[in-house]
Amino acid sequence: MINIGKINKLNVVKQQGADVYLDDGTSGKVLLADRKLPANCKVGDSLDVFVYVDSEGHLAATTKKPLAQVGDIAWLKVVSLNYVGAFLDWGLPKDLLVPFSEQYHEMEVGRSYLVKVFLDEQNRIAATTKIDKLLSDESTDFEVGQKVSLIIADRTDLGVKAIVNNSHWGMLYENELFQPVRKGQKLDGYIKQIREDRRIDLSLHQPGYGKVVSLTDSILAKLKANDGVLMLSDKSPPEAIYAAFGVSKKVFKQAIGALYKQQLITIDKSGIRLVN
Predict the structure, then answer these.
(1) DSSP annotation string for 87-145
(2) Which of the residues 27, 36, 189, 263 has an alpha carbon 20 to 30 A from that of 49?
(3) Which of 61-70, 199-208, 238-247 has the highest mean pLDDT?
(4) Which of 101, 132, 163 is the last residue of a domain?
(5) DSSP 222
């Protein structure tokens, strides 16, 4: 079955002049809008294509990959406006419509917005800025330590809200952010905690001792590359530690503490040193 608004693997079944037709074996022929097969592709081969409904209501496909598929949330720029709504650049020749009914406020050309891509009742692909109603505040199936995909949203007094796996809201706390983030940015993150109210706390760093073990190897490698001396210690500012290793000060302190207990390093106010 063909999934409209998604990447599908379809077979090349016919080439007639400039027209190329694809099929999944069950849904009927789909015209390749590119009107040209990729190099080294021929009838009988399969292609990964994005499927949509064209202006005449027919299924069509393209080998071009959009910036978002149906069900995805993305940070997209408005390129034009008309009497039906706003149009977004999403990486395809035909821009993506946000109808006026799907806008919280009137959108402006040149500005970017967080939108969710969906299929309307006629199977046409559109987008909405009304994502709050489509996201849950409460976790039902996430686990602590689970790796997730994040999209950075708005800042709050506590930190930064992020969209988790295109389906839930989570929170990155300001005092645990050691790198700049911007609205619309896509990042990997981790479930740090599921609170009693089922709200999700997030981290950009893998929780648990496994992170510490990996970091100790990195610290030892950097010490060996710097003649056994590193001008970082448990007294160093968090920003300096993050710049060097991409981790929080807490994780760094755990790692050098483990190395110290193994008598592999010494620690003083200025830095750490390999034990000969």
Answers:
(1) EEE-SSSSPEEEEGGG-SS---TT-EEEEEEEE-TTS-EEEES--GGGSBSS-SS--TT
(2) 189
(3) 61-70
(4) 132
(5) H
For 24-32, what is the mean pLDDT?
Answer: 82
CATH code of the domain in which 267 resides: 1.10.10.10
Quote the domain boundaries for residue 56: 7-62
CA separation, residue 208 to residues 46, 174, 190, 254 (Å): 43, 20, 11, 11
Is residue 48 in some structural domain? yes
For residue 56, what pLDDT is reported? Answer: 84
Q: Please, which pLDDT band fits residue 81 given cuts at 50, 70 and 90?
A: very high
